[in-house]
Amino acid sequence: MRPQKTAMLLAQRIVGDINRRGNTVGDRLPPERIMLEEYEVGRGTLRESLRFLELQGVIALKPGPGGGPVVQSPDSTSLATSLTLLLQFANAPFRTIAEARGGLEPMMAQLAAERMSDVQLADLKASVDNMHDNLDDQSVFLEENKRFHDVIAHGSGNAMFGYLVDALLGILDGSAIGIDYPEVRRVAVHKAHLSIYEAIAERDPAASADAMADHIQQYLKYAEKKFPDVLAAPIVWGTGP
Q: Where in this chain does the entry annotate a coiled-coil region (predicted)?
């Protein structure tokens, strides 16, 4: 276990140095020979550390002459993967994600009513309007459904919520796991989104939380009634039930 521990400690040092230097996306890190001298580690340990950071989305390893590690901006992908694996090995069903959203998203809507910027509010309205204008197109509906919840999560002003919702929605992709949205259901979702938007636009935290709680509850009721087997199916990394 010592090489793995050493590689992890080195990865932490590299990230600390990225922050210390103020590196931004696209900046190249020192070449391998410089890093080997600076960190006084073996080539295998350094490469293991860099590979770990690449998997976490912190860097990209560019091949060829002039290549090497390049700073990137991590997103929720690795978080979604980690959560999926944890839940899979816990034999957790997809219902777990839906229930978690029911607990988290009302709080996000409440905070968004207090903190969301005018630009984010306009983006939220655009999502509601675009969903309405394309209710006959399920692909647009699904895209706007995710966008709506993403905007609220990031508009909460709490970075943790933003990443969590990105990850949870990535795992609970209704179309991928077999939950269908007929037009009557799409109309109901749009109506709920409009109610949530109006409460947030009025800067009413309690009404925003209540509207979101009702929206998630209605989704759960619909899924339990129409797709109970889907919600009961175990979460599996990379595939739906």
A: none
> pLDDT tens for residues 121-153?
999 999 999 999 999 998 899 899 999 999 999
Structure tokens at 232: 């009961």
CATH tag for 2-71 (out of 3.40.30.10, 3.40.50.620, 1.10.10.10, 3.40.50.720) = 1.10.10.10
Residue ranges of alpha helices (H) inside 156-241 are 159-171, 174-177, 183-201, 205-226, 228-232
pTM of this structure = 0.81
* Cβ–Cβ < 8 Å for 112, 162: no
Q: Which residue has the tokens 């599996």?
A: 236
Q: Identify the helix (H) or strand (E) that includes residue 68.
A: strand 68-71
